[in-house]
Write a sequence for this structure.
């Protein structure tokens, strides 16, 4: 039988009653296969001997003699304390909370085998987290547990389990010991699974048999068995992943129809109207996109490029390809703010070319909504820009040819899947400023081609990043004041909208008043955060960009709503207070709001005492590099891949052993 076919319920295992079974379900363990694939998160090497005197280096693992029994407390709280001495003469107390039975199983004078974590408490060396068992031996000069290193790692009869023990991820009410017993029983009962990989592959890659690998991952004989077993199991997982991706690619190519290359005239007309030339990378990427759009099967492409590298323009040109070919295009972005900005830019750049535009979000209500949906369905709209509302119920397209997802890492997997359902298999272009390694991209998105913009538009100066400790922000404000006086603009970003009872953090509302009234009384500022009405946000953004009906704003106080995509080229200062509260990708995105013109720009990261280890790493990484790709790598190291893709699943495939980064 193959492991994944082992559907037997865990209740078949001895000791797994209904209560325990329900607890195991909380860990996602339902079947025999689940349990066998429940990988230990760590191992405890009990073949390493450690005397009581070495307690600070790790768990103690040695032989000892019981000296006396002691009792403390009264009534039901009466607790046994067993005094022991190891063969080096070090004494310690075993505090036996709720383990009165030890009075009999560890009698005075007995030799015991001991494993436990010890601590100095109240001037005594003691432990309440220990395992001990009576053994049949004599004090030795070395105190070596005799059963520790028999061949095969088998513990001698009557001794504590020795060798390398698995340490499992647990849930409330399922202690480590129970987990170990259950996996041991599961191995005995179901462990003889068949190999799944072709013999040739197994030989070529020097892989273990599957049954062997599963056994060793749970019960390694030596520490070195663990990586060996993991390699086999990870290889198999990635082998299946590759097959799944290959199959998906075949499906996509299935029913291919001849598609002529998209006409380029509209896109070229746009380029002619621009005040600048495309960068070489933008050209290359566009050629790749055009080739995909003219190939017989739909495009599935990820466009990676650092913040400010000019992805929006590429998106618009791709949309023009689709439109010139007689289709419709949809551009989906994660926030309404960004959707509006893109719609404004599109109106400026594309409407003169005769492109019929629309903006759609959940906030577009009747009476505007109905005619808009009708126009989309009849093909009277060429390009629609909006939030995920673009792919909600009731939104239909006449001939959706291209879907562009901006800042795609912000969208959930399901939303991404919903896209495909709208058109007759539209071309899909996903854009991201948070590059991820290829394996990870494959795991998260399946079969994708990747294009990368590496160079920035000419004339950009790298943003200068300064760190400032909280308390010194006056100096930061002073610097910003000079920039504002020179006609530049500044962002101030805070982790909270308003006062929080739980967190002692500066918030956007209070800081807006403070900055406006006290710090920059001579300049006009605006406030923007997620709880304000859309109309207000829109007006404030327009005023900050200098495009509003009101007089322009010099500074904008915000939460991370300005994180993605916002493009106001004459803003030169980004001040992020409580920088330690933001993730690395967010910090990089925020910094990307400045440095969008030939003007020298600055980013100030103001950090407070509650920096923490990860916070420090993030802030330092920001200071040290401006390269989004390097930052994404650091982010991956700090956070791990699962959190970044928002999923550790790859379709129906579960990556329990393979590491999408380490196993590249
Ligand atoms: P992102 O890749 O972060 O989405 P944007 O598309 O917002 O970047 O572009 C950042 C800025 O660079 C915009 O103001 C845009 O007009 C400008 N830009 C784009 N391409 C070029 C180019 N080839 N030369 C000069 N400026 C450009
Ligand atoms: Mg962008």
């Amino acid at each position: 039988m193959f492991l994944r076919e082992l559907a037997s319920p865990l209740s078949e295992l001895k000791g797994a009653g209904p209560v325990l079974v329900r607890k195991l379900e909380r860990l996602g363990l339902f079947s025999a296969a689940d349990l066998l694939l429940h990988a230990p998160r760590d191992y405890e090497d009990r073949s390493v001997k450690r005397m009581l005197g070495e307690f600070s280096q790790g768990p103690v693992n040695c032989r000892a003699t019981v000296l006396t029994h002691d009792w403390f407390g009264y009534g039901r709280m009466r607790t046994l304390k067993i005094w022991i001495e190891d063969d080096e003469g070090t004494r310690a107390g075993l505090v036996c909370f709720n383990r009165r039975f030890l009075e009999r199983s560890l009698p005075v004078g007995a030799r015991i085998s001991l494993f436990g974590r010890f601590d100095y408490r109240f001037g005594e060396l003691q432990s309440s987290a220990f395992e001990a068992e009576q053994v049949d031996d004599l004090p030795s000069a070395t105190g070596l547990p005799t059963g520790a290193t028999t061949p095969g790692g088998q513990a001698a009869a009557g001794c504590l389990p020795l060798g390398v023990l698995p340490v499992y991820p647990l849930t409330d009410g399922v202690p480590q010991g129970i987990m170990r017993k259950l996996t041991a029983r599961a191995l005995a009962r179901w462990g003889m699974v068949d190999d799944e990989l072709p013999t040739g592959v197994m030989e070529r890659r020097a892989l273990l048999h599957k049954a062997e690998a599963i056994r060793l991952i749970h019960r390694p004989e030596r520490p070195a068995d663990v990586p060996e077993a993991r390699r086999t199991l990870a290889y198999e997982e990635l082998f299946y992943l590759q097959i799944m991706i290959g199959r998906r690619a075949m499906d996509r190519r299935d029913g291919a129809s001849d598609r002529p290359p998209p006409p380029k005239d509209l896109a070229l007309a746009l380029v002619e109207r621009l005040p600048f030339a495309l960068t070489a990378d933008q050209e290359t990427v566009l050629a790749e996109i055009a080739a995909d759009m003219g190939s017989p099967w739909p495009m599935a492409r990820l466009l990676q490029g650092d913040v400010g590298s000019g992805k929006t323009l590429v998106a618009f040109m791709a949309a023009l390809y689709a439109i010139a070919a007689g289709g419709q295009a949809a551009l989906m972005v994660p926030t309404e703010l960004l959707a509006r900005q893109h719609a404004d830019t599109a109106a400026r750049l594309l409407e003169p070319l005769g492109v019929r535009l629309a903006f759609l979000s959940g906030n577009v209500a009747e009476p505007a909504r109905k005619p808009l949906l009708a126009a989309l369905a009849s093909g009277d709209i060429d390009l629609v820009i909006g939030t995920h509302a673009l792919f909600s119920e009731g939104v239909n397209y006449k001939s959706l040819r291209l879907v562009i997802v901006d800042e795609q890492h912000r969208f959930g997997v399901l939303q991404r899947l919903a896209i495909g359902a709208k058109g007759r298999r539209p071309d899909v272009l996903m854009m991201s400023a948070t590059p991820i390694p290829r394996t990870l991209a494959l795991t998260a998105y399946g079969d994708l081609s990747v294009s990368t913009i590496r160079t920035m538009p000419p004339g950009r100066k790298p943003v200068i990043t300064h760190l400032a400790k909280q308390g010194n922000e006056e100096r930061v404000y002073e610097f910003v004041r000079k920039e504002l006086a020179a006609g530049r603009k500044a962002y101030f970003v805070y982790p909270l909208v308003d006062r929080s009872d739980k967190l002692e953090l500066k918030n956007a509302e209070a800081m807006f008043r403070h900055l406006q009234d006290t710090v920059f009384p001579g300049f006009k500022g605006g406030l923007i955060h997620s709880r304000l009405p859309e109309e207000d946000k829109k007006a404030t953004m327009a005023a900050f960009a200098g495009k509003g009906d009101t007089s322009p704003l010099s500074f904008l106080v915000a939460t991370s709503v300005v994180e993605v995509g916002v493009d106001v080229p004459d803003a030169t200062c980004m001040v992020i207070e409580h920088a330690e509260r933001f993730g690395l990708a967010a910090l990089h995105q925020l910094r990307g709001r400045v440095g969008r013109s030939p003007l020298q720009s600055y980013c100030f990261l103001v950090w407070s005492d509650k920096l923490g280890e990860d916070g420090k790493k993030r802030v330092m990484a920001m200071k040290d590099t401006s390269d989004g790709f390097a930052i994404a790598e650091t982010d991956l190291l700090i956070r791990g891949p699962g959190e970044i893709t928002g999923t550790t699943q790859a379709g129906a495939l579960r990556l329990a052993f393979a590491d999408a980064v380490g196993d590249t």
